[in-house]
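Notes for week 9. Today we move from apo structures to complexes. The key idea is that a small molecule is not decoration. When we ask for a structure prediction with pyridoxal-5'-phosphate present, the ligand SMILES becomes part of the input, just like the chain. The input block below holds both the sequence and the ligand string. Read it once before you look at the output, and try to guess where the molecule might sit.
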Amino acid sequence: MTKNDRGSLIRPVPLPESASRPVATPLSPSVVYASDTPDMLDAQYEGDLHGYTYSREGHPNADVVARTIDAMEGAPHMGVVVSSGMAAVSAVLLGLTKAEDHVIGGNQLYGRSLRMMAEDLPRLGIATSMVDPGDVEAVRAAIRPETKMILVEVVSNPTLRVADILGLSALAKETGILLVVDNTFTTPRSFKAYDHGADIVIHSVTKLLAGHSDVMLGYVSARDKALNDRLRVFAVTAGMSPSPFDCWLAERGMLSFELRFDRAQSTAAKLAKHLGTLEGVKRVIYPARRDHPDHLRAEALLKGQYCNMVSFEIEGTRAAANALARGAEGLSFAPTLGDVGTTLSHPASSSHRALTAEKRAELGMSEGFFRVSVGLEDPDALCDVFTSAVQAATT
Ligand SMILES: *Cc1c(COP(=O)(O)O)cnc(C)c1O
């Protein structure tokens, strides 16, 4: 064997030593971690010694993200970071159930969560019911002896209805059923799910927490240690592992999360007021408004933090909707939320396209219905953009 330029070894140069520490978290893309001896590795697997082994099982960048969200949520155990929000939903729905169980879900859950409830769980012999999470008696009526969990979002997409979390958590406690809260929309800045009785908390980190539309990541943790462990084992076994680079970007995004959220939320309140004054806007949906159907509940649950999502409706057809999207100059017409920039989405052509027009009308989502995820623009400039866009669409 001939020697290469570095001597005969492939990795002869150890990490340079430094008495001081880096301020920014180093990116650790290593898939494997070397231990000194079989005894040491044994101690790591037994949990007597903390040390990473193989990055599917865990890595430093994922743990930094987990600890950051744990602290915000007040999670009692280190949560599990997974490759997307849907991986987190899947870890809960598939990792904690078995055939013949029953799961109740909010009837306005995120589209893919609804699909998993409607298609995948039944295929595996797990029955599901979709119920209005604002109606505790309807949820109670749906409970069966084999009901395992209730999965809800605090504020629904895109009609911004607010779930009766206090009623649901009392019901869950009374019946011994797990209450699972997808806290993506509200975030711990607006709603601390564990303080309100949640047993399991889910996040799409992709959205507001990471905040820059350049990372896809999810998070889940459980109040109960054994359940938290089961979620981790399932996520690892199912290969839901997150990339270190994505975790590193998410950590960077989360450094400014609170500032971003507060700014976006105050601009959203301003935009909601402004939209209400525009000729051509039929309806504005924002939980801070007194005409919001769940205003009092939102006030009590969200403690004045009404989040960054505003929906509104203009009179008209697809042509008017096209004119509005075109007229919203400088904003992205894109089906996501939580980006640093304001994004505009149109449920009838995206998230709710699979429904019939009649069904959408029943849910209050006509062709003129838009959802706005408010970002960090100058509030007055943003209001001006909407003035022009609505004008373009309605005159
Ligand atoms: C986006 C979203 C998800 C899914 O998250 P991904 O990271 O896109 O997989 C789940 N729940 C809610 C409420 C969401 O908005």
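The chain has two domains: 38-254, 257-394.
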